[in-house]
Amino acid sequence: MRENMTLIKALAHRNKSFDLSGVEFQKLRINLRNVQEKNLQLAQANSHTLDELSTNRDRACFSGIEVAQNEAFLFHYIAASMTN
Question: Which InterPro entries does this entry report, sorted A to Z (predicted)?
Answer without folding.
Answer: SGO_plant
